[in-house]
């Protein structure tokens, strides 16, 4: 911080200011224009111009008073399935602790939710409805599961089905618990997705479920994606990793009923 102030006093070039703002975004997820203006000893107008340029480059999303880092989750499903496998396994082990026998579970697509499917114990006596072919394969031929695969269009690089067919089927379900996939999550901006049809299906899943749970790797926290799904307050259970800083954890606990840290 001191080094930044000294550099600002000596006069930073616009490119240097923009790079520092991007570094703050990557470190904190969210930045405030007023705080950046004070730190860089420049005007809020200048900071907002830099944020607008960074948003045009796809690095962030403008929000009231500042900006949010764009989530890094906009990758093909095949790539995401091989990323952070151990971390997702720990999140999954924590997430299945809230599952109870005889429940109807709605399991959204996504690599962490595939890990949740694998972590569900045998003889769990569950009905699992999922739009994820990968999750379905983790449950087939295992005792204690009645598995229903939601149909529909599977886009290139996508992790599951969506579109009109999937939406209609989800609207006919009344689930006890939904493990919702989230591309991005922020206490103020809520849950977001990268695809408009995916966001629509997620909203239908929320409406069809008694409780909503999300298991989230740390890089998705305090980030944004283009299409809003739900407010943070709509989430009943949020499972996070152990590396979430205390201040960030407190901001999550202020909006979510149950924030649970997945221990190693």
Automatic annotation (TrEMBL):
The keyword tRNA processing does not apply. Residues 14-69 form the HTH deoR-type domain. PROSITE patterns: HTH_DEOR_2. The keyword Repressor applies. Keywords: Repressor, Transcription, Transcription regulation. Pfam families: DeoRC, HTH_DeoR. This is Glycerol-3-phosphate regulon repressor. It comes from Paraburkholderia metrosideri. The lineage of its organism: Bacteria, Pseudomonadati, Pseudomonadota, Betaproteobacteria, Burkholderiales.
């Amino acid at each position: 911080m001191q080094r930044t102030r000294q550099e600002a006093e000596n006069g930073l070039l616009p490119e240097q200011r923009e790079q520092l703002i991007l570094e703050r975004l990557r470190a904190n997820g969210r930045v405030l224009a007023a705080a950046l203006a004070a730190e860089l000893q420049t005007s809020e107008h200048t900071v907002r111009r830099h944020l607008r340029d960074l948003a045009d480059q796809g690095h962030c999303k403008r929000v009231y008073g500042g900006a949010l880092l764009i989530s890094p989750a906009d990758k093909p499903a095949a790539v995401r399935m091989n990323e952070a496998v151990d971390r997702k396994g720990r999140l999954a082990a924590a997430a299945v602790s809230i599952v109870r026998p005889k429940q109807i579970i709605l399991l959204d697509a996504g690599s962490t939710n595939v890990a949740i499917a694998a972590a569900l114990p045998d003889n769990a006596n569950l009905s699992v409805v999922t739009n994820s072919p990968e999750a379905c394969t983790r449950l087939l031929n295992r005792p204690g599961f009645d598995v229903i695969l939601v149909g529909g269009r599977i886009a290139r690089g996508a992790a599951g089905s969506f579109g009109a067919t999937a939406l209609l089927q989800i609207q006919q379900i009344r689930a006890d618990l939904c493990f919702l996939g989230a591309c991005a999550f922020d206490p103020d901006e809520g849950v977001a997705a990268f695809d408009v049809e995916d966001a629509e299906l997620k909203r239908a899943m929320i409406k069809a479920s008694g409780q909503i749970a999300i298991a989230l790797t740390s890089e998705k926290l305090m980030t944004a994606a283009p299409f809003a799904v739900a407010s943070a307050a709509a989430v009943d259970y949020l499972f996070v990793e152990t590396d979430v800083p205390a201040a960030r954890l407190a901001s999550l606990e202020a909006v979510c009923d149950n924030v649970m840290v997945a221990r190693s």
